[in-house]
Structure formats: structure tokens, C-alpha cells
Write a structure and sequence with these properties.
122 residues, 8 strands, 1 helix, alpha/beta
Length: 122
Amino acid sequence: MHTIIRSLSALTLGFAAGSALAEPPPVTVKQEGQTFEHFCAEEEGAVFIGSNNQITASGGCTSIRVEGSNNIVSIGRTTSIAINGDQNRITWQSNANGNVKPPVSDVGKGNTVRHADEDASQ
């Protein structure tokens, strides 16, 4: 009987610990025509919804998603970038693997994603 209870207790603790390690949902920021900064806490993603914004995202963003058009987004560090909209300009500094370009999902027209050190005319 004690073996079963210990096993169930260990199993329950394992599930509780596993759920504590799950990535939190991303922070959603909705703005139109604004200039703002967003700091991502470690292991936090961010979703920016709106158009005509100038956004600076710093900290350890696990992912960045931009929904809207004509946004200029400067990202310090992220592991992935997703864009749903048109004419967005995204620059990034680094990802978890250094200066390797993070995976990009681009649904839209005229979006650009480049490393911050790249010439904007490229």
C-alpha cells in the first residue's frame, strides 16, 4: 500500500513540476500609431497588434508576433518571429543561438526582417 501511495505522490509531484515549467502565454499589446517599448521577462513571448507603431522589444523574448501593417519593430533577442500583415519592418539583434537568424513566419506582403547590423537598403 505504501508503495502505491509513494508512487502516486511522486507522479503527482512530477505533473505539478512539469506544469510549472510550461512556457507562460505571450503578453499581448494592442496599440495604434504609437511609439513604445516593451520589456519581455525571461521566457516570455510578446504579441503586438496594431498598425503604424514604432516598437522596441528588449529582454529575453521567446517569440515575437506582429499583427498589423506599417509597424517598425526593433527586437533585442528572440527565438522566433511571426508576422501577419503588410509593410512591417522588423530588425533583430540576437537569438538564443547568437546571431543566427531566428525562424520567421511571414504572412503578408512587403515585410522585411533583417539583422540590426545589416544595411537597410539590402
